[in-house]
Design brief:
Aspartate Aminotransferase, domain 1, 13 strands, 390 residues, alpha/beta, 7-stranded mixed sheet, binds pyridoxal-5'-phosphate
Amino acid sequence: MRLAKRLERLPPYLFVEMSRKIAQKRAQGVNVISFAIGDPDLPTPPHIVEALRTASLDPANHRYPETEGLPQLRRAIAAWYRRRFGVELDPDEEVLPLIGSKEGIGHMALCLIDPGDIALVPDPGYPVYAMGTIIAGGEPYYLPLREENGFLPDLSQVPSQVLARAKVLWINYPNNPTGAVADLKFFEQVVHFAQQNDLVVCHDAPYTEVTFDGYEAPSFLQVPGAKEVGVEFHSFSKSYNMTGWRIGMAVGNARLIRALRDVKSNLDSGIPQAIQLMAIAALEGPQECIAQHNAVYQRRRDLLVQTLRDLGLRVQPPLASLYIWARVPEGDTSLSFTQRLLDEVAVVVTPGSGYGPSGEGYIRLSLTVPEEDFQEGLRRLQSFRRSGKV
Ligand SMILES: *Cc1c(COP(=O)(O)O)cnc(C)c1O
């Protein structure tokens, strides 16, 4: 049996040793508390689940859906973009529902990347931008996100021989894993850079609704010219606690949306219609759930930031996203600190180096830990300090 070479180009799973240790601890009966998973712990709001219950009874929803999604969902997405961001979208040409935004991000690489092409991807970053590129036969080029630049990429540092082969620039704000945000001025620079270098821009924006301290995250498409060069990926997963239902969307440039639809129509058969009807209920129903969820995350953010600062870690409270990105103490690496936390107090965090070389020296902690575990996790981190380990 001979598998495709592209599988060999996927890097080995970085956390093998950590996963083995966690499994070992759990097998010994240790109650391991994990701050590693970015999956909302609170359930999908009841009115959205109710829409599924109703929709599931209608035989019209028992059949194959259309790739391009229900027209009423595309209209609901366009109306939400107008209300929320003041962005106008043609629901037939500029909106495409997805089986979660991860699916669209992965498939977008097939629309843009030929063997030998380069994709500019953030480092640290959500791994799918680079992996989708590799699966499509291309090469990721890592753009370091440095703390002194507010975790924005320095576009002037991309070498011209890289730019000559680059087809697409991936950006993601509010950012996973750093929690950083970007303003419209940065998005304007991105549009200008894309125009000058003939690049497509893909902005991954699943955290625009997960914000704190009154901050409102913009859409990339608010910037003049953005729709000529790019698309934005969005998701119901983080805004409405709908990770398990798998639904998101791509919006923006009509040619890119058509290309993604053409690839998808040959590889998948769309989103179950009952789930599309949940998404409509989410966008058109009461929106209080968003502020309620954010209040929970904001309180956890404050408690966790304080606890980490007491440990001597350097950390800024993020204005958005579900993550705390903290600098490990002097003398530790991402991995050594992560392993010490696991060994000493049975707390799991994600080593920043897992998100790319520039993530070295950081750890990521997620705010989506169920309340009781969260409190226990804080107590354990505090005991780590009292034990004099930092
Ligand atoms: C969670 C996440 C996604 C994936 O969202 P789905 O719509 O659930 O596939 C995409 N990008 C980033 C940066 C994420 O953190």
